[in-house]
Automatic annotation (TrEMBL):
Name listed for the protein in its UniProt record: Polyribonucleotide nucleotidyltransferase
Cellular component GO terms, alphabetical: cytosol
Function comment: Involved in mRNA degradation. Catalyzes the phosphorolysis of single-stranded polyribonucleotides processively in the 3'- to 5'-direction.
InterPro entries for this protein: ExoRNase_PH_dom1, ExoRNase_PH_dom2, ExoRNase_PH_dom2_sf, KH_dom, KH_dom_type_1, KH_dom_type_1_sf, NA-bd_OB-fold, PNPase
GO biological process, one term: RNA processing
Xref: SUPFAM superfamilies: Eukaryotic type KH-domain (KH-domain type I), Nucleic acid-binding proteins, Polynucleotide phosphorylase/guanosine pentaphosphate synthase (PNPase/GPSI), domain 3, Ribonuclease PH domain 2-like, Ribosomal protein S5 domain 2-like
Pfam families in the record: KH_1, PNPase, RNase_PH, RNase_PH_C, S1
Gene that this sequence comes from: pnp
Record field: catalytic activity: RNA(n+1) + phosphate = RNA(n) + a ribonucleoside 5'-diphosphate
HAMAP family, sorted: PNPase
Source domain of life: Bacteria
Length: 694
């Protein structure tokens, strides 16, 4: 066993190699503060048959014992991966995948098991570093090292690798991965951070990454294994030469140079059929023909863009596809909007509900236990013209939904301003590039159409990249379509308002980006999102509606003395359930005494609020109440003014005339008006019907 340590952002990062998991290709027991993560990397001996992609799987396993908890549910054991686990695994996958050989088809699994959590040291960061170290010291071919740093911001000051609390409460959640030379991945959520401030934070993280990379290189030098040889799955050059004889470059260019996705696919289908007929006798070539055509198409598109300055659909490099937007297309829902950009079309529906409908989160971060705003993204097969059964949301869908959710969180009103749980759902009607950014635009409009008083409009766009042989030989592409995403080198998504960035997600397929590319992409996306807001979104809906939909629940919030919460709830919930049963409303109460009354009938809501106010107000002299006779005794009657709130009217205070029996004047269920007389000699509150003003 060997132990390596370094100081990282004022805390000790310790890596133990060789103590556990010796049968994995690479394993690292990671300690950062008291956070402990076991990271392993394993690879199969042979390539997986029948695949034309690199089969990499990344896992981030949240063990509840890491925070001293037993999992909930019937089985009392960890179940399927949480949303946070999936998003963390995606952040690890994105920077590491491009560093494996392009012709490598062996299965590779990166597993990160969280065994202990120190709230000062986020386990997600430890897992990111652990995956890089485990892979670098293994015998798996990998063009590393790479490292990751997280940056938060409190009161305008950057914090390197912030604690769980600072990460949650700060104005910036930035993760940056780097190789020795370049930035390779950016993921961010931000509270309208200006572009120049974001760039400063990115390159601060990049500089920190260089110290971590030097640390990893030291580990590899001492304990790293020799990389194993592997069976290359590269396409034979002879096949490429034969394809070009049958389908010249010009024919392939004509096939892909169209602004209609379906037309392009038909053209490629015709070329494929021609080549299948030509190579019918060569089974070895037929087995890889699809990948060969893909590579030929890719090289053609890249050459057209980089050398000829032509995009497949004929647009200028900074031109956005035709835009369209509308609201209120779905009846009876609380809010709806559709955003169309070329052949990408998203319909978003907004639903409002009481705060009791918020999503409970059971995870390793004690600072995050509930989500008030939920954005869900769906990608049915018909949106790309395919026929596949729906299997529920996959990792891609969860990732896209989380990105749009992160984009809009900074502009949502507080619970005090708008005491609702909010859910938006993006339905992909058609897809040809960057549906997550269209989801952001449609979600923003849907929220405004529902009457959610968001602070500012948010839009998003993606910027692509095609690179040449040198660092300064590149072309940036505004609003990439699917083909440019598949064949290009970058998908740089940025969302924001007119004042700053709210989210970033960057995927690349090359070994990093230079600073001019990062700065250029951020500038290009700002220009594009402002154009989208001004020319498309604002004409459809310029600001949030002042009134909620008639189909949306109305919520009125009042504050009560927290010591009176028990009076409102009653023994075993008897009082609050009686109010709910009588009025038909929903009632939520926080520990701070905020009472939210939700319903669609104003009269019923007012009645419930009146009951709550009576229950929580001490009886005082000369107060007038209306109540119901609930009990009759020889000496008087008991009147219920609200569930659990009763007062006694003495027989002498029922009528101006002398009565022998209470039943002569009152019966159970009678509605009466009473005035409070204050306390009697024994300190009891008394009421009068006869002294009540007429």
């Amino acid at each position: 066993m060997k132990t390596f340590t370094m100081d990282l952002a004022g805390r000790t990062l310790k890596v133990e190699i060789g103590k556990v998991a010796a049968q994995a290709n690479g394993a690292a027991m990671m300690f950062y503060g008291d956070t402990c993560v076991l990271s392993t990397a394993t690879a199969s001996d042979k390539p997986r048959e029948g695949v034309d992609f690199f089969p990499l799987s990344v896992e981030f396993e949240e063990k509840m014992y890491a925070v001293g908890k037993i999992p909930g549910g019937f089985n009392k054991r960890e179940g399927k991966a949480s949303e946070n686990s999936i998003l963390t695994a995606r952040v690890i996958d994105r920077p590491m995948r491009p560093l494996f050989p392009k012709d490598y088809r062996n299965d590779v699994a990166l597993n990160n098991m969280v065994m202990s959590v120190d709230p000062e040291c986020r386990p997600e960061l430890v897992a990111m570093l652990g995956s890089a170290i485990a892979t670098c010291i293994s015998d798996i071919p990998f063009d590393g090292p790479c490292a990751m740093t997280q940056v938060g911001m409190i009161d305008g000051q950057f914090i390197i690798n912030p604690s769980q609390k600072d990460w949650k409460d700060g104005d910036l959640k930035l993760t940056v991965a780097s190789t020795k030379e370049k930035v390779i991945m950016i993921e961010a959520g931000a509270n309208e951070i200006p572009e120049d401030k974001m760039i400063e934070a990115i390159y601060m993280a990049h500089d920190i990454n260089q110290t971590v990379i030097a640390f990893i290189e030291q580990i590899v030098a001492e304990v790293g294994k020799e990389k194993h040889t592997y069976e290359s799955c590269a396409i034979p050059e002879e096949l490429f030469a034969a394809i070009k004889e049958i389908v010249p470059q010009e024919e392939m260019e004509n096939a892909v140079f169209t602004d209609e996705k379906q037309a392009r696919e038909e053209n490629i289908k015709a070329i494929t059929e021609k080549l299948e007929e030509a190579f019918a006798e060569n089974e070895e070539w037929l087995a890889v023909l699809g990948e060969a055509i893909y590579q030929y198409e890719k090289k053609t598109v890249r050459k057209m863009i980089l050398k000829d300055g032509k995009r497949p659909d004929g647009r200028a490099m900074n031109q956005i596809r035709p835009l369209a937007a509308e609201v209120d297309l779905i009846p009876r829902v609380h809010g709806s909007a559709m955003f169309t950009r070329g052949q990408t079309q998203i319909c978003n529906v907004c639903t409002l509900a009481p705060l009791s409908e918020i999503q409970k989160v059971d995870g390793l971060d004690e600072n995050t236990t509930a989500k008030r705003y939920m954005h869900h993204y769906n990608f049915p097969s018909y949106s790309v013209g395919e026929t596949k059964p729906s299997r529920g949301p996959g990792r891609r869908e969860i990732g896209h939904g989380a990105l749009a959710e992160r984009a809009l969180l900074p502009v949502l009103p507080s619970e005090e301003e708008f005491p609702y749980a909010i859910r938006t759902v993006s339905e992909t009607f058609e897809s040809n590039g960057s549906t997550s950014m269209a989801s952001t635009c449609s979600s923003c409009m849907s929220l405004m159409a529902a009457g959610v008083p968001i602070k500012k409009m948010v839009a998003g766009i993606s910027c692509g990249l095609v690179t040449g042989e040198t660092d300064d030989d590149y072309v940036l592409l505004t609003d990439i379509q699917g083909l440019e995403d598949f064949f290009g080198d970058m998908d740089f998504k940025v969302t924001g308002t007119t004042d700053g960035i709210t989210a970033i997600q960057m995927d690349i397929k090359i070994h990093g980006l230079t600073r001019p590319i990062v700065e250029g992409a951020i500038a290009r996306t700002r220009e594009a999102r402002l154009f989208i807001m001004d020319t498309c979104m604002k004409p459809a809906i310029a600001e949030p509606r002042k009134e909620l939909s008639p189909y949306a629940p109305k919520i009125v919030q009042i504050m009560i003395d927290p010591t009176k919460i028990g009076d409102v709830v009653g023994q075993r919930g008897k009082t609050i359930n009686a109010i709910i049963e009588e009025t038909g409303v929903k009632i939520d109460i926080t520990d701070e005494g905020a009472v939210s009354v939700c319903g669609t009938d104003k009269e019923a809501m007012d009645k419930a609020i009146k009951y709550i106010e009576i229950i929580t107000t001490d009886f005082e002299k000369d107060q007038i109440f209306e109540g119901k006779v609930v009990s009759i005794k020889e000496f008087g009657a008991f009147v219920e003014f609200a569930p659990g709130k009763e007062g006694m009217v003495h027989i002498s205070k029922i009528s101006n005339e002398r009565i022998k029996n209470v039943e002569d004047v009152l019966t159970l269920g009678d509605k009466v008006k009473c005035i409070c007389l204050g306390k009697d000699k024994m300190g009891r509150i008394s009421f009068s019907i006869k002294d009540c003003p007429k």
